[in-house]
Amino acid sequence: MAIASSPSVEPAVARDEALTIRGVVLGILSIGGMALWITHHGGALIKSYLPVAIMVPFLMWVVGNCFLKMVAPRWALRRIELLTILSMMWIIGNLPAIGWAQYNVSSTVGVSFLASPENRLDDFVVPVLPKWLFLDASVPEIQRGFSGVESHREIPWLNWLRPQFWWLVGSLPVIMAAYFASIILFRQWDQNERLVFPLSAFPVALVEENEGSAFPRIFSERMFWLGFAFVGGIYVWNFIGYWWDDFPSVTLFGSARSKALELGKYYRPYYFRVQPMIMGLAFLCPTDILFSFAFYNVFDIYREGLMNRFGFSLGIRGQAAGGKELTMLEAHGVLVMLVGWSLWIARAHIRDTWRKAVSGRDDDGVPIRYRTAWFGIAMSGLIFVGWCLSAGLTLPATLIQMVLMFIAFFGVSKFAAQTGFTFLNSPGRKGGDVILSLAGTKNLSPSSTAMLTLMNRHTFLGQARRMSACPSIPHFFRMIGNGFQRRTLVASALPLAYILGFFVTSWIFIYVFYLEGGLNGRFAGLDVSYLVRRVPLIAEERITHFDYLKVWAWIWGIGLGGLLVYLRARFTWWPLHPAAFAFPTSYYGFSIFLVWVAKAVIIRFWGVLGYRKAIPFAFGMVTGYLFGVGADSVIDSVFFPDGGHWVHGW
To answer: I want to staple 154 with a disulfide (CB 3.0 to 4.6 A). Which of 36, 149, 240, 326 is the partner?
Structure first.
């Protein structure tokens, strides 16, 4: 990967490798088209930080570009332009519909709308929430959104501009901090640690072409089409049953709930879920990590179940934690250890970027100088702190929340790049659950408790496992290859996409909210319901205290993470990776188990060459899955607009 060796001399980049204005413009248009499609016809397609909602449009661009090359080659898009379109959609991939916009819009107006004497939101919650982030549903033009309006001219756009602007002011520093941190750490991950970046390998494979061919190189692989036929064929078979009620369907890719094996009253179910997209992308993951996740999934189910069965709890009287909360604290402790260890092994690189930033000499940061990146991190942190303080959080709560949010997003971003898993979810969400579990509400103001509840749910940035912006940034740097240069277009593409996407997705949903009526299925009151449950805590009728006993569970997690790291470094045969303990999975353990068995058998009997030949099959499975989901979305929107079919979800 060609990287500038001197800040004053920009190396020449081949025409096909440089970002273009056309690619950025098409990326912006794709954001709008994707947001419209997801809001109207595909709300359930945002379930992870690599959502199907962006991969289906990207696949359409790839296929459409093949036809362009045949009929109008001058208008065909280059490799870097297709990847730019994908990356710009990816950074805002979780913002449309249930990814973020639906919850944010609903919470912004829903807290006051759902307030009643029974839930006491009006007495204890509404007064402590900042007025500039929320709207008063008693205002007639605001309230009409719940029943619907006859014309878009009745939508009070100016009323919504204020809260949406301030939600952006709070969200953007987090995204920009991730952007600047990715600039500082990317070379460490890519060149020093040599992470695999499986999530970027699949889209890159779809745009790599043979010289003189209109089609991607992988399309000439027979194994690719076998994988495509295996998955896509099942979907085509099931499509027939949409019109023929007695036609037998193949439920191999059914939802997790339909594949649940109940293990008993005190145990979580084990899900025999087969998810082709997760399996295809995870095929590039190292086998030890695959085994660790598959093994720990079973171990965690039985361990938590045994704690529930025997009534094991830990904590001071009146707020003791059971099995579920204790395993969360342990997992978070392991994650803290992993993030700390990752920063420790990167210390030489981080120190080098700091030295270059301070001295200004040999500052070869890409796509911006390291000096700018470090300054950007500092400014992003200050703006976020200021926003949190203005929103009602105390300074200690703000600082702890900021650190825990960094741990959550850093951990997910790095291990997504290492594993290719699309379902990693930070324990304790963005850190708020850890704060409330350990610190207690006695050390929090009522406004801090209320805002932490919303910030750690969907209302702020979306749910942690769906927040696509942070993991997308280093993958963008990896995908563009030699186009990763110090250029204005490279540096500005993703921040521009997020700012525009933020307003496009929220305003599209506001439009639909008013035209269709929020109470006709568009209102999502889940986050408000969490506030209702915490009214006794916010009202300080029930006070929880700092729990030194629960802290031991968290410290145990840190120690466990350290032990696992040591064992992996000391013994080459040690099979368990600490990431499995930091990101315990619920639904996809069986899918990972199947991938581990397949990959281990292939390598055992056919070696590395056999493994490489099998990669197109894995990518064919992913492509077949995207084809099936995309085709179903079209079929449902045309033939079954009032009641679609389940094809994607947990």
So the answer is: 149
Cα(471)–Cα(247) distance, rounded to whole angstroms?
Answer: 41
d(CA 10, CA 3): 9
Please give the model's pTM, rounded to 2 decimal places: 0.93
Instruction: List, for residues 481-523, the tens digit of each pLDDT value.
Output: 877 788 888 899 999 999 999 999 999 999 999 999 999 988 9
To the nearest whole percent, how much of the chain has pLDDT over 70? 98
DSSP code for 74: G
Reported as a single tens digit per residue, the pLDDT across 524-550 is 989 999 999 999 999 988 899 999 999
- Amino acid letter, 592: I
Q: Residue 229 is encoded by which pair of tokens? A: 């036929």
Cα atoms in the 13 Å half-sphere on the side-chain side of 79:
23
Residues 92/84, Cβ–Cβ less than 8 Å: no
Q: Which residues fall within 8 angstroms of residue 254, CB to CB, at 6 or more apart? A: none
- Tokens at 17, concatenated: 């490798």
pLDDT in tens, 293-327: 999 999 999 999 999 999 999 999 889 999 999 99
Q: 395-431 b/e with 16+ CB inside 10 Å = b? A: eebbebbbebbbbbbbbbbbbbbbbbbbbbbbbbbbb
pLDDT tens track for 112-153? 999 999 999 999 999 999 999 999 999 999 999 999 988 888
- Identity of the amino acid at 77: L
H or E element that contains 261: strand 260-261
Examine residue 557 and state whether it is found in any structural domain, yes or no.
no
283 Cβ neighbours under 8 A, 6+ residues apart? 198, 420, 595, 598, 599, 614, 615, 618
Q: Is residue 152 part of a domain?
A: yes
Rounded to whole angstroms, the Cα distance separating 178 from 167 reads 17
Share of the chain above pLDDT 90, in %: 80
Contact indicator for 69, 216 with CB cutoff of 8 Å = no
- Tell me whether residue 295 is in a domain: no
At a CB cut-off of 8 Å and minimum separation 6, what does 331 contact? 427, 557, 581, 582, 583, 584
Tens of pLDDT, residue by residue over 82-101, are: 999 999 999 999 999 888 99
Q: Which domain holds residue 453?
A: 1-193+368-391+445-541
Helix (H) or strand (E) holding 270: strand 270-271
- Length of the chain equals 650
Tens of pLDDT, residues 624-650:
999 999 999 999 888 888 778 888 887
Q: Are 620 and 226 in contact (CB under 8 A)?
A: yes
DSSP annotation of 251: -
Confidence of residue 16 (pLDDT cuts 50, 70, 90): low
For residue 429, give the 3-state DSSP assignment.
coil
Answer for the pair 513, 105: CB distance below 8 angstroms, yes or no.
Answer: yes
State the Cα–Cα distance between residues 110 and 98, nearest whole angstrom. 15
- 446-455 and 526-533 helices cross at what angle (nearest 10)? 150
- Rounded Cα–Cα distance for residues 616 and 532 (Å): 50
Alpha-carbon distance values, 245 to 237, 238, 345 (Å): 13, 11, 59
**Domain tally, the chain:** 1
> Does 618 fall in a domain?
no
C-alpha distance from residue 278 to each of 70, 232, 462, 614, 621 (Å):
33, 15, 21, 16, 10
State which amino acid sits at residue 376. Answer: G
CA distance 480 to 470: 17
Q: Is the dihedral of CA 41, 43, 46, 47 positive or negative?
A: negative
Q: Could you read off the pLDDT of 251-270 as tens digits, one per residue?
A: 999 888 889 999 988 999 99
